[in-house]
Amino acid sequence: MSAGSIKVLKNKIFGKSKWMQLPRDVVIGHDVLPQLPAVCEDLRIGQSVLIVSGGHTRDIAGERVRALMAESYEIATFTAETISPEVIKQAEKAAGNADFLIGVGGGRVIDTAKITAYNLDRQFISIPTAASHDGIASARASVPTAEGSGSLEAQPPIAIVADTGIIAAAPHRLLAAGCADIISNYTAILDWELAHRLRGEPVSEYAVALSKMTAELLMKNAHVLKPHSEETAWFVTRALVSSGVAMSIAGSSRPGSGSEHKFGHAIERLAPGKALHGEACGIGTIIAMYLHGGDWKTIREALRSVGAPVTPGELGIEDAVAVEALLMAKTIRPERFTILDMGLNEESAWELVRMLYRE
Length: 359
What we know:
It is a single chain. By secondary structure, this protein is an alpha/beta fold. It has two domains: 25-170, Rossmann fold (3-Layer(aba) Sandwich), CATH 3.40.50.1970; 173-355, Up-down Bundle (Dehydroquinate synthase-like, alpha domain), CATH 1.20.1090.10. It is 51% helix and 13% strand. The chain is built from 15 helices and eight strands. A six-stranded parallel β-sheet has the order 1-8-5-4-2-3, with helices on both faces. Strand 4, helix 4 (107-120) and strand 5 (123-128) form a beta-alpha-beta unit. The protein starts with 24 loop residues before the first strand and ends with a helix. Residues 6-10 have low confidence and may be disordered.
């Protein structure tokens, strides 16, 4: 027998690759805005910048950011009073030849800046004025359209500068909504693992571990989180950044967005302006945890401890709207399989809403 007739197995070449974009600099603490120029110098991302802020957040922090940057950088400014495809186009035009963007504000402003940066292939620095959701650090953004809010791919921040004094001074409702958004990681992970078992969807164990740890830390400390406390603002902001990083590791919003977010988006479509993003998702988390057979009462108590609503009535919406949202949820991002795709009907949806009021 000649050697040429022997079949030899070729060595397998590992060809899997993944591109993760994570924040390089994260500065969180008291009166940290003056560190912004040093952060920009460290990043070496250019000499011209578009500062995006809202009308209110411009007065809170935007003007100070402009003054801090004006000594060493060419400055352009843009005010995003709302977020829409039209506003994003205007922001792109305002960016002109800017080397990078800075978003100073809440969720609407940060999302406008990060989508604009993504569309223009520019870097983006996040300066949150409230800790209301994990969008301050994630690569996803929510944009209202005629069909309802849509989740879009966006530029993750290359740096985050979060002043806890500014964040602590914001209305506590915003921070409570941020806490609810973090707690929702629990059911987002359960939905992801369900989709893995039933649909073969790949799961990132690293992203799952980080997302779950973040939610557990917040649940453990929910009873000591106080309104208008810089220590509380520091803790919650760190948790939101951690949650956003988990999404970057996963390459999707799966670690922090499941059935509870689909329910939340449905609420936003059916009752626009009634609920903050995190508030609606928090109520969705109670329902989703009940469906998964988990400890939904502990979730509810944690939400109460941080001051987040736990019933449709506390949101100022009718129970029938919550029922409709549960039935609508499966039509939102239908490619994302969750516990709400397991055959929910109107009768069971009503029972789930009634459960929210049960002690």
